[in-house]
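Task: sequence design from structure.
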């Protein structure tokens, strides 16, 4: 697309769609995106339906570099922190608390790089009764209300594009771009939080407004 983000480095700890789409959008704008994958298999989309570069993987991961790191091992964490120290953005889609369990909580990341923008993508946010639950597109489709606009309630069958997955990735990119602009003024890093449920609702503002104001 353009090189407006030339010189911006992004460390991407992610799998499947939401955060990989965010990373790919940043790469399309010229950012240097380094995708960190687990040594045992990497992103599950890699070998989806066979091979190492499935159509699903390629669709969300063009324009990136890749490295294998086991973040449960000290050596892997040390390398990740060295990368983070020279990065502008760290992007991940782990459940709340997983980064801290890996020894990569916000305090550790901030100590490594006070200018780092940390974007966290979750299913339901960092707090609340569903916060610890994993999520995938069909869950967000149902809970956000998108399913009620698409499916026959007598014969529900999910089909078509992964709307919450893609919307979440786009909103995350939007938030990161805003945080990068803010950092130019303040010199400080920022935490960006995006979740699939709220992104799904935000993607259908008019039906949601009609439902809540009826």
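Answer:
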């Amino acid at each position: 697309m353009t090189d407006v983000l030339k010189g911006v480095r992004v460390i991407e700890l992610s799998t499947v769609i939401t955060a990989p789409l965010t990373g790919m959008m940043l790469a399309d704008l010229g950012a240097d995106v380094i995708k960190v994958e687990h040594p045992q298999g990497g992103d599950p989309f890699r070998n989806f339906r066979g091979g190492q570069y499935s159509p699903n993987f390629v669709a969300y991961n063009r324009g990136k570099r890749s490295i294998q790191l086991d973040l449960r091992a000290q050596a892997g964490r040390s390398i990740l922190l060295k990368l983070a120290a020279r990065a502008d953005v760290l992007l991940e889609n782990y459940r709340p608390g997983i980064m801290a369990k890996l020894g990569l909580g916000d305090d550790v990341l901030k100590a490594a790089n006070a200018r780092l923008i940390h974007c966290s993508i979750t299913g339901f946010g960092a707090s609340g009764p569903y916060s610890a639950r994993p999520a995938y597109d069909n869950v967000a489709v149902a809970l956000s209300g998108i399913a009620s606009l698409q499916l026959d309630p007598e014969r529900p069958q999910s089909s078509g594009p992964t709307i919450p997955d893609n919307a979440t990735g786009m909103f995350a990119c939007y938030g990161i771009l805003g945080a990068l602009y803010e950092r130019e003024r303040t010199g400080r890093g920022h935490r960006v939080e995006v979740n699939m449920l709220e992104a799904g609702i935000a993607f259908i503002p008019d039906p949601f407004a009609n439902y809540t104001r009826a």
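The longest strand covers residues 32-37.
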